[in-house]
Design goal:
mainly alpha; GTPase Activation - p120GAP, domain 1; 0% strand; Rho_GTPase_activation_prot
Length: 407
């Protein structure tokens, strides 16, 4: 009994002694104080994160809106530069003003209770590149084919949001591959001729894809910024391949001062010396562009390379081609190699050379009319070096092309 009572007494005094311990109580109060501060800190951090999320959300929305407006303005500028009959300078200015004054409205304010259904549909539609490609292909074949360019722009710039995210880039790339296959199947009797047309739905979508692709801008800037800046500093002379054009640029008075009378003995010699000097400069700058392009081949956009690889696979098999197409020789490997190379050059490489603002090769540097002409000459030479045979080149230009290394 005594032992039992003693044990009970000791057990009861233990907690009391701990609570009466002043050092333990001070530690417990300190812990409570820290926990209270931690709770206050966590609460403040939550509020800061909410504010930061709101700022990021608003900034993201502004970026998407600005991205859409910029690309619409870019499309208008391209139409104006290429002399499209749909866009006159007056219409272009009017649309530019409309875009600058555009007021974006949140979807729920316009769609009200239908916003959820529309959002689900667009999400599902966006996530099915094959269906998107089929809609574009069917629209091109319908009576509303005149609207196909506008629809493709909506798909690339709104549905895929100008390829701002990697997911949009991947989905748009898959859509391009499906669209190409649909168009080849639909035009199986003359697929190569259809593929080379510039205003097909595929080519329109491809141009927008390369224009929006961030990796293409990196590649073009790395490849062409330095040679372009070098050329812009040499804007005194037009680099004309044709001798008569070279003389005409000078005007009668200047030509007479430089070369003398056309009937004089040394006239042809002086003209040849002048023209040779200009051609040497043209060859020099063209080689600058070629060497810079070669040095940057390792950073060629992988998504574009993947698209070309998959397109080529379509024509490496015969299952998508009709018997008539094979009999007519449309499925010729050399022809399709040339067609794919032409697409890379016309709508990507040479376009960036002719228009350095494309892809941000140069941004703030003014480009004179002389420099634009010389850039076009360089792009034309590169295109001919890649695509033309000896028989395709004009006789006066043969001497120029002989100065480049044969591959």
């Amino acid at each position: 009994m005594a032992a039992s009572v003693g044990c009970t007494s000791t057990h009861q005094k233990g907690p009391a002694n701990i609570l009466n311990n002043s050092s333990f109580r001070s530690e417990l109060l300190e812990v409570a104080h820290h926990l209270k501060n931690e709770k206050s800190f966590v609460g403040n951090e939550k509020e800061n994160i909410k504010k930061l999320y709101s700022l990021v959300d608003n900034s993201s929305m502004k970026v998407h809106q600005l991205n859409m407006s910029v690309h619409q303005q870019r499309c208008l500028l391209n139409d104006l530069i290429t002399g499209s009959c749909r866009v006159t300078p007056q219409i272009c200015c009017s649309r530019f003003n409309s875009l600058s004054k555009a007021n974006f409205i949140d979807g729920y304010k316009f769609l009200t209770h239908h916003e959820l259904r529309v959002g689900r549909f667009l999400k599902s539609f966006r996530g099915n590149p094959k269906l998107v490609a089929l809609c574009i292909s069917e629209l091109e074949s319908s009576k509303e084919a005149c609207c196909v360019e506008h629809f493709v722009r909506v798909v690339m710039l709104q549905l895929y949001e100008g390829l701002i995210t990697h997911e949009d880039e991947v989905l748009a790339g898959r859509m391009l591959q499906h669209l190409f296959l649909f168009q080849i199947q639909k035009h199986s009797t003359n697929s190569l001729k259809h593929f080379l047309k510039s205003e097909t739905a595929f080519n329109i979508a491809y141009r927008l894809y390369t224009e929006c692709l961030s990796s293409s801008k990196t590649f073009l800037t790395a490849a062409f910024h330095s040679p372009t800046i070098s050329l812009l500093s040499e804007d005194e002379w037009y680099f004309d391949v044709d001798v008569s054009s070279c003389i005409a640029r000078l005007g009668p008075a200047e030509a007479l001062r430089r070369f003398g009378q056309a009937s004089s003995e040394d006239y042809d010699v002086k003209v040849k010396v002048h023209h040779t000097r200009l051609m040497d400069k043209l060859v020099y700058f063209t080689k600058l562009f070629i060497e810079s392009l070669k040095s940057c081949h390792s950073i060629f956009p992988k998504s574009l390379a993947r698209i070309f690889k998959n397109i080529y696979k379509v024509f490496s098999t015969s299952q998508h081609l009709s018997q008539q197409q094979q009999q007519d020789g449309n499925h010729n490997e050399a022809n399709w190699d040339k067609a794919l190379l032409n697409m890379v050059l016309n709508s990507f490489i040479c376009l960036a050379i002719c228009d350095p603002q494309f892809g941000g090769v140069v941004s703030d540097t003014p480009i004179s009319e002389v420099s634009r002409h010389n850039l076009r000459q360089i792009a034309h030479i590169i295109q001919n070096l890649c695509l033309s045979t000896v028989d395709d080149v004009d006789v006066p230009a043969c001497e120029l092309y002989d100065k480049f290394d044969k591959v």
